[in-house]
From TrEMBL:
It comes from Streptomyces lonegramiae. The keyword Acetylation does not apply. Its cofactor is Fe(2+). Belongs to the 2-oxoadipate dioxygenase/decarboxylase family. Keywords: Dioxygenase, Iron, Oxidoreductase. InterPro entries: HGLS (IPR009770), YdcJ_bac-like (IPR047869). Its EC number is 1.13.11.93. The keyword Iron applies. This is 2-oxoadipate dioxygenase/decarboxylase.
Length: 463
């Protein structure tokens, strides 16, 4: 029998192999990421594994897919449930981008710490929003919804195997092989000709809308390895002649602790795609829809820490507007150095980041009683604080990656009021609760505090 986590690991590996065959620059990205990680490990030793073992970091991937309807999203949820992956977080990219990105998103991932350590594969999944009148007028919405209703992304056999794996938390080897083969095939780029006129109609609204609603299939848009030094990776990829997007999205490179998520990518490549013209003939063409993203993950921030992060981004925006000639990275670094705590201990003391706590093996043995205060326990060597890695995404960064790889800005009519979507709506659409990432991190931290209190025989709750 093949357990869910082994299914997840095998699916991630096969998807990576398939994507490397279809997008060779992705293989280069993985190779350079591995080289950088090995160099960082040699230079920094155990400190390089502070946010995950090198085995986990090397195997880690996140993917991105796009679907068109709530029904399709429900089917995606069934496929990922087979792999022990749950919807976590709600992201509204319509509000995070200056250009037209008419999607709302969630991420499917494991949520249990042990499952994340085994294989942390996650898939950022976006759904088109045809009901938003800022992007789609009534006629185009009707045509788009009719087109989407007439396609099938996932065969019934795949969904049946997925439901069985989700219910039984494993599959027999032969069924696991069938499931993996069907699942990987569902995310391959289809050779079916693109209806040129229809695709171009949607592309005038948004390249993302065209990629989702302009074809009769879905596909993996990017796969993302994890790297320990994203600035060095950016430099090495550029040296190899790979065209990277202009910036690294997320927090700046600075002297303090890495927090949340930094991302960049190589630019979407012009890939050959057959086009069917209005007269029915099929001609050669090209589309830019797939790219290679890479990420560096940091410490998960609490709600208060995230609020500080967002305030600092706003401050950087203001400084950049006031000093357009200045380097944005330098401006951001100066803001971070002034306002963001410069050490993990300060982040913990101010309640800005999540940690797991463990009783230190070398704790005092002189018969003294441990203090009841968490800060004092850490300060006096009774307890160790280990940062919790950020497993989720940043809507502004995701939108920035999308924007950097679009063929045009698209159109958005802000005279209309946008259609409201939120985590509750998305939960109902998927048929599964969209989990709150902050609650997951807090539960992980609180469980560790309860263990510490029990081991040290402390009364009350540690905070």
């Amino acid at each position: 029998m093949i357990s869910q986590w082994r299914l997840r690991a095998a699916f991630a590996a096969r998807l990576s192999e398939m994507y490397g065959q279809e997008v060779p620059a992705y293989t280069t990205l993985v190779d350079v990421s591995r080289e950088v990680n090995e160099d960082v490990l040699r230079a920094r030793g155990a400190d390089a594994e502070r946010l995950g073992s090198i085995g986990r970091v090397t195997a880690e991937r996140h993917g991105a897919i796009r679907v068109g309807t709530p029904d399709e999203l429900r089917q995606v949820a069934r496929v990922f449930a087979a792999l022990g992956m749950h919807p976590v977080g709600f992201y509204d990219l319509r509000e995070a981008a200056a250009s037209a990105v008419p999607v709302v998103s969630t991420a499917f991932r494991p949520v249990d710490g042990e499952e994340l350590a085994r294989n942390p594969f996650r898939v950022f999944t976006s759904m088109l929003t045809p009901a938003d009148p800022r992007f789609f007028d009534a006629d185009l919405r009707s045509r788009l919804e009719s087109f989407l209703a007439g396609r099938e992304l996932f065969p019934a056999k795949l969904l049946a195997l997925a439901d069985r794996a989700a219910a039984e938390r494993e599959l027999p080897e032969a069924d696991a092989e069938r499931f993996l083969r069907l699942a990987v095939h569902a995310f391959e780029l289809s050779p079916e000709p693109v209806e040129a006129a229809w695709y171009e109609t949607l592309e005038r609204i948004s390249a993302v809308a065209a990629d989702i609603g302009g074809v009769r299939s879905t596909h993996i848009n990017h796969l993302t390895p994890r790297v320990l030094d994203i600035d060095e990776l950016y430099r090495r990829m550029t040296e190899r002649g790979i065209e990277m997007i202009d910036t690294i999205q997320g927090p700046p490179k600075w002297r303090g602790p890495d927090v949340l998520l930094r991302q960049t990518s190589f630019r979407a490549l012009a890939e050959p795609r057959a086009h069917r013209t209005p007269d029915g003939s099929v001609v050669s063409g090209a589309l830019r829809v797939r790219f290679g993203e890479v990420e560096a993950r940091g410490i998960a921030l609490t709600r208060e820490g995230r609020a500080l992060y967002d305030r600092l981004l706003t401050l950087v925006d203001q400084r950049a507007a006031d000093h357009p000639e200045a380097d944005r990275g330098d401006l951001a670094r100066a803001v971070w150095e002034r306002h963001m705590p410069g050490a993990e201990r300060e982040l913990a003391a101010q309640g800005l980041a999540y940690f797991t706590y463990r009783v230190a093996p070398g704790r005092p043995r002189d018969g003294s009683r441990p203090p009841a205060d968490l800060g004092a326990l850490v300060e006096r060597g009774w307890v160790r604080a280990e940062p919790i890695v950020y497993e989720d995404f940043l809507p502004r960064s995701a939108a920035g990656i999308f924007q950097s790889n679009l063929s045009g800005e698209g159109t958005r009519n802000n005279d209309h009021e946008g259609t409201a979507y939120d985590a509750g709506w998305l939960s109902e659409a998927i048929g599964h609760e969209v989990l709150d990432p902050y609650a997951l991190y807090e539960q992980q931290q609180n469980r560790s505090l309860a263990r510490v209190a029990g081991e040290l025989e402390l009364d009350g709750t540690l905070r």
